[in-house]
Amino acid sequence: MMAHPDLLEGYVIELPLRRPFVTSFGEERTKRGLLLRLVAGDVEGWGECVAGMGPWFSSETVETAQHVIRAFGVPLLRQQRWPSPGEVQARLAPIRGHPMAKAALEAAVLDLACRARGIRLSQELGGTRDEVEAGVSLGIEATLDELLGEVDAAVEQGYRRVKLKIKPGWDVGPVEAVRRRHPDLPLSVDANAAYRLEDVAHLKKLDDFGLMMIEQPLCFDDLVGHAQLAGKLQTPLCLDESITSPHRAWEALEIGACAIINIKQGRVGGPAAAVAIHDLARSRDVPVWCGGMLETGLGRALNVALATLPGFTLPGDISATERYWKEDVAKPHFVLTERGTVVVPQEDGLGVKVDRSCLKEMCVDRWTEKL
Ligand code: SMG
Ligand code: MG
Hints:
It contains 13 helices and 15 strands. The radius of gyration is 20 Å and the shape is globular. The protein folds into two domains: 7-118 and 353-370, Enolase-like, N-terminal domain (Enolase-like, domain 1, 2-Layer Sandwich), CATH 3.30.390.10; 123-343, Alpha-Beta Barrel (TIM Barrel). It is α/β, with parallel strands linked by helices. Magnesium ion is lined by residues 190, 192, 215-216, 240, 262. Magnesium ion (MG) is lined by residues 190, 192, 215-216, 240, 262.
């Protein structure tokens, strides 16, 4: 049984992106994040919260997550026997919503438990591979030339799939241009909820380009709209923002709102919920892939571990560290192999080490809770 940890530390970090990342809902130049360090004796476990600076991708932010973790999550965890990773979700269930806050706590508990037992996180989650297929997500650019340059570079580097961010006014044109230049490239688009059902005739034009999927075209909480849209398009729909729990995934699949699921452990309430959605999708032959939230190497390591599960049959938004920033808090950096994959670290737990001096440099605020 896991010893009761001594303390939980929170580190708010800021990390400048190499290139601004523009989506239909905004622009990100500097990543603001929250890292959790859970300490038991001489073992530590790390969890990264994927909430953003503002409530744009989802309703959570770094600040709301810190509040929920400190005021409600920590008391629930410490009030009884320390939970195993598989028990964290149930223990935190009294907290409604706030999946990213809960996921960060569960991730830290999971990493600590794996490191204490001397096993890799991918093993613990039921992973079956040593490397995972890497894709890239390319933001909206100021010009088509810049986008084509980014696509060419990604193809040159060997990424297995390119995803283009789209929004009204930046959709059919860029997709057509990329497709003409790269006829066989596995290509997808992600609208981050920028369209409405009335746009169906326009979205239908995307059917001409052999896309693997259209990700989250409609409103973040609109399952019925997506089910109706799915019946009118040839291109498969993938849901991201809409899938906030295993139950929500079940609802989406029951009504045919999507044919593919983007699994982000933070968005769905933690690693156990992510595995549950994987299992559900697999039992129905629905492909899943691992999404990304511009994580540091800590969150990336968890994504890599998750993507080793057998149902993750499509390349994820798991790219090499160097695409995001110069130096990462987690070492070693993730690199792209010549096979277009990222290799699972072989060390215990997340398998990466925290570079203390780098953490100090990017840390803008920190706190400690006694357990
Ligand atoms: O981590 O490479 C990454 C980013 C992948 O496009 C990505 N994420 O909707 O899937 C998505 C977005 C959400 C993050 S926007 C800051
Ligand atoms: Mg998305």
